[in-house]
Write a structure and sequence with these properties.
The protein is mainly β. The chain has helices at 2-22, 366-369, 603-609; strands spanning 34-45, 49-60, 64-89, 92-117, 123-150, 154-184, 187-210, 221-228, 231-244, 248-271, 274-277, 283-301, 306-322, 328-347, 351-362, 372-373, 381-382, 390-401, 404-414, 417-424, 431-437, 440-455, 458-475, 478-497, 501-510, 513-515, 518-520, 523-533, 540-546, 554-560, 565-572, 578-588. The protein has two domains: 2-438 and 571-609, TonB-dependent receptor, beta-barrel domain (Maltoporin, Chain A, Beta Barrel), CATH 2.40.170.20; 439-444 and 455-515 and 518-557. The longest helix has 21 residues, at 2-22. Residues 184-561 form the Outer membrane protein beta-barrel domain.
Length: 610
């Protein structure tokens, strides 16, 4: 697939160069017809160099339009992860301290090619093919120190030095067909069909050595894990829209999706006689999921200023999961009713009040469902086929005028997903961590957005969000609550300088907030960029530096005295002070909008995979 993407990219580049000579021949009297595009190149340097490029191309005729988008990134980055955890085990304690440095080399290619045809004045037929081919290699070295025991019985200490080499090839192919027919103004019928195929190849190699000076040296342990997770998704959707009188519009639709996920995991260990497969650990699971939905929405305009919209969506889900022998260990069927309500009222020319209520269903992403294990942390587990869907009720009231906005939002989630939920082993009281559902999550957020023009060449955009959140989890018949008041402030300062220069300073700071079953500690970032618009429509140069103060690190703290649990995990996944230089140039008809994306029937399903 990578070869196909590169060939299409070369074709796109030649088409982009040819477009400039063709544009003057295309419909000189119609600004919506012709050819337009944009090309960009990027180079950067953090701990390691990185690069990227993209091309967008749109060509419109009276009866057809074509569009293309290609993106390539090539990054190499240093990531640092640390984890310090104290938790009970049996009658004593287990304390682990892990530090890991990972060098991640990643190359990503993505491509979208589409065409829209108009066989008649009221009918449109659209075709879209897209995909990506991502390749990543992770070379990680880690140290794990652990001690286990009690004050009376003494402590058993151990230290391990390890290395992990991970190779991942993550590919997607998608095809979409879209048909829409307009009977009259505001009266239409449309159909969408999507097919998606994902390939996830993820082999891992582990090597570890006992590094404790007080313990007798042992032979290095070697282990290979091969994980293959292909996914197939089929989606069909139909929507019908028609006016009811002069003030109302009715929308109805149906949607059906079918998913097949295979999760094959094979672990082998090096023994004296050679590589031996671990049959007890290996997995070969199959997930079949079908979802059917019917929905309707009625929008009524009581006046030129007041609009009411009410809707209802009904979904039926059937999920089944089987092991290699065909035995079912997950069989779940359920209905979901998802109402929506929205009332808006205009005030003057630019003011508006809005009140809305929405119920949503958030299904677990597939990488949280598929079973897998990481052996550099003995307390960490991945993959939980028994994850429940999350149901969220959201009430929001807002006021906006010009660019100022004020909003108050309350959300209640049932069975919210936690990527690192604590789980207690009843046999030895040990605590592990992995994907799981909390009981509930409640949050109240007040947000404010306020632009300020200090002078004609200096403008600012400021936003503030203050949130009180509380999450709850039941373990061993006891419910634990973690609540936190927090906030986040964002500001962007834009300076319009002489000679077509523009400078921008973006900064944000977040206080500690409740996150899953713990707290996400304070963090922030300052980014500076300078842009130069070249004369004669020759493009734009942009130079930027991200995370100037090295303050954007994710730190998760979980402290539960009743469970004797204290855990701090730090992720430094984004390198600080990355210097980037980018060049962007548009070509073709300047009055045309370059469009290379559109919604399809599988937008919701792709969020669970990507």
């Amino acid at each position: 697939m990578k070869t196909s993407l590169l060939l299409l990219a070369l074709w796109a580049a030649s088409a982009g160069l040819y477009a400039q000579s063709m544009v003057n021949r295309e419909a000189t009297t119609n600004d919506s017809l012709g050819t337009a595009g944009q090309i960009s190149l990027m180079g950067g340097l953090g701990w390691y160099p990185r690069s990227g490029s993209s091309l967008q191309l749109t060509h419109r005729q009276k009866r057809a339009s074509f569009y293309l988008a290609y993106t390539m990134t090539n990054d190499k980055a240093l990531q640092q992860i640390s984890n310090d955890c104290s938790s009970p085990i049996g009658e004593g304690f287990l304390h682990t301290n892990i530090s890991m440095n990972r060098v991640v080399t990643q190359t990503n290619h993505s491509l979208h090619v589409g065409a829209d045809f108009r066989p008649g004045s009221k009918t449109m037929v659209g075709l879209l093919v897209s995909g990506f081919a991502n390749k990543a290699q992770i070379d990680a070295r880690y140290q794990m120190a652990s001690e286990q025991g009690t004050i009376l019985s003494g402590w058993t200490r151990n230290r391990i030095d390890g290395q992990m080499l991970e190779n991942r090839r993550w590919q997607q192919r998608m095809a979409n067909a879209h048909v829409q027919h307009a009977f009259a103004a505001g009266h239409s019928l449309s159909f969408d069909v999507d097919y998606l195929a994902y390939t996830d190849s993820n082999p891992n190699q582990y090597g570890s050595q006992n590094a404790d000076e007080t313990t007798e040296k042992t032979d290095p342990a070697r282990m290979n894990i091969d994980r293959q997770t292909p996914i197939r998704i089929q989606v069909m959707k139909a929507d019908y829209v028609r006016p009811l009188g002069k003030q109302s519009t009715l929308e109805v639709g149906v949607k059906a999706s079918r998913l097949l996920l295979l999760n094959r995991v094979d672990r082998s260990q090096w023994k004296a006689t050679g590589w031996q497969s671990d049959v007890a650990f290996n997995r070969n699971d199959r997930l079949n999921e079908t979802i059917g939905a019917a929905y309707t929405n009625l929008t009524t305009r009581f006046s030129d200023k007041t609009t009411l919209a009410i809707g209802l969506r009904a979904e039926y889900t059937n999920s089944q999961m089987h092991d290699a022998q065909g035995a079912s260990f997950l069989n779940r069927q359920y209905w979901s009713l998802l109402p929506t309500f929205s009332l808006s009222h205009k005030i003057g020319e630019n003011g508006r009040y809005e009140l809305s209520y929405t119920r949503q269903i958030l299904r677990s992403p597939f990488d949280a469902i598929a079973s897998f294990s990481m052996f550099w942390d003995p307390l960490l587990m991945t993959g939980n086929p028994a994850l429940q869907p999350t149901f969220a009720d959201i009430i929001r009231a807002s006021y906006s005028v010009n660019r100022f906005s004020l909003a108050l939002c309350y959300s209640h989630e049932r069975n919210p997903l936690s990527r690192s939920a604590p789980m207690i082993n009843p046999t030895n009281n040990a605590i592990g961590f992995g994907p799981g559902n909390l009981d509930r999550s409640d949050a109240l957020t007040l947000s404010l957005s306020l632009p300020v023009t200090i002078c004609p060449w200096w403008q600012t955009q400021n936003s503030l969000a203050m949130t009180f959140a509380q999450n709850s989890l039941t373990l061993q018949n006891k419910t634990y609550h973690i609540g936190q008041f927090g906030g986040q402030f964002n500001m962007t300062h834009t300076f319009r300088l002489p000679h077509e220069f523009t400078a921008e300073v973006t900064a944000w700071y977040a206080t500690p907030t409740a996150n899953e079953f713990g707290r996400l500690l304070s963090r922030g970032e300052v980014t500076v960029s300078v842009q130069k618009k070249l004369s004669g429509n020759r493009g734009t140069l942009t130079a930027s530096v991200t995370d100037l103060l090295w303050t954007n690190q994710l730190r998760f703290l979980t402290t539960v005295p009743e469970l004797r649990l204290d855990k701090l995990t730090t992720f430094a996944l984004n390198e600080p002070r990355i210097v980037r230089l980018a060049y962007t140039r548009s070509f073709g008809k300047a009055s045309m909008k370059v469009n290379s994306q559109r919604r399809t029937a599988s937008d919701e399903e792709r969020k669970r995979v990507n």
